[in-house]
Amino acid sequence: MRQWTKIKDYEEILFDFYEGIARITINRPRYRNAFTPLTVAEMSDALYYCRECADVRVVVLTGAGDKAFCAGGDMNYKGRGGYVDGKGVPRLNVLDVQKQIRSLPKPVIAMVNGFAIGGGHVLHVVCDLSIASESAIFGQTGPKVGSFDAGFGSSYLARVVGQKKAREIWFLCRQYSAKEALEMGLVNTVVPVEELENTTVEWAQRMMELSPLALRMIKAGLNAELDGQAGIQELAGDATMLYYMTDEAQEGGKAFLEKRKPNFSKLNNLP
Ligand code: S0N
């Protein structure tokens, strides 16, 4: 039995850590882990921690209990304009979390057991990898329940499974088995439920043996192709970070502070 250590207390999520892996668990099993504005705010806070903390190398997103990964937005909170928070403000703050997952410079694995439905399905789609139990069930429901996600939930879904399949998923609002999800490339692997956590940890450990910077650049590059100027900004930000590590960039800054002309002549000029 693996010992996960609690990172921080929240009301609607669990957040714990095991040997480089931070695990965020949506903890509303009574509602099939449907998320409220608070759940989403807490996920956002935990993801921010994951970004800042150097000890976190891989993030796992999952749902509590054996019934659901996440059943999307909690419809008890749905008002006009979004899901209404404790102050009466309607929000679609899950969109911010989708962006956070996508731009986190570390791999994020969705560990899916049970239903991944609606906005919960989109959450697994935006993760870098999805590992499903044999009983996992996938699907969008928006057009059936008065909502839709025409952002990553549609466009990135289409990049993952192809345009025809993405349209089928949204236009028919069917549910798909884990086997079907694997066949359409919607998940990376399917394992018996007893092996779900072990497999997820093994995949995370495998990634932690590899160069974190290489994985970071690959993630940014894969995003950049799809995310327009925001994607390029991310990749360019990483390039800038690497440039700042060079003597060349150091010399520029140093020269300015020493009020002299920079001397870039002795530095390597690779072909
Ligand atoms: C998940 C389903 C298939 C499970 O069925 P099952 O096992 O038969 O359980 P149930 O008896 O149905 O459920 C158990 C209890 O859990 C409650 N519950 C389940 N899902 C939700 C939910 N989403 N909100 C609130 N409660 C939920 C049930 O009501 C039940 O409670 P009791 O015991 O009191 O009866 C099945 O539950 C199901 O189909 N659920 C609904 C799934 C769904 O349609 N989700 C989509 C919701 N909308 C979004 O996700 C939108 C996301 C979003 O925020 C967004 C993001 C970007 C852009 C736009 C949007 C947007 O607003 O659309």
From TrEMBL:
Hydrogencarbonate binds at Q140, T141, G142. It catalyses: 2-succinylbenzoyl-CoA + H(+) = 1,4-dihydroxy-2-naphthoyl-CoA + H2O. Substrate binds at R32, Y83, F115, A116, I117, G118, G119, T141, S147, Y244, K259. One of its GO terms (molecular function) is 1,4-dihydroxy-2-naphthoyl-CoA synthase activity. GO terms for cellular component: cytosol. Its cofactor is hydrogencarbonate. It holds the Pfam family ECH_1. GO terms for biological process: menaquinone biosynthetic process. Keywords: Lyase, Menaquinone biosynthesis. Signal peptide: none annotated. It comes from the Bacteria. The record marks Y83, Y244 as: Important for catalysis. Pathway: Quinol/quinone metabolism; 1,4-dihydroxy-2-naphthoate biosynthesis; 1,4-dihydroxy-2-naphthoate from chorismate: step 6/7; Quinol/quinone metabolism; menaquinone biosynthesis. Its EC number is 4.1.3.36. PANTHER family: 1,4-DIHYDROXY-2-NAPHTHOYL-COA SYNTHASE, PEROXISOMAL, NUCLEOSIDE-DIPHOSPHATE-SUGAR EPIMERASE. Belongs to the enoyl-CoA hydratase/isomerase family. MenB subfamily. HAMAP family: MenB. NCBIfam families: menB, PRK07396.1. Converts o-succinylbenzoyl-CoA (OSB-CoA) to 1,4-dihydroxy-2-naphthoyl-CoA (DHNA-CoA). This is 1,4-dihydroxy-2-naphthoyl-CoA synthase. The gene is menB.
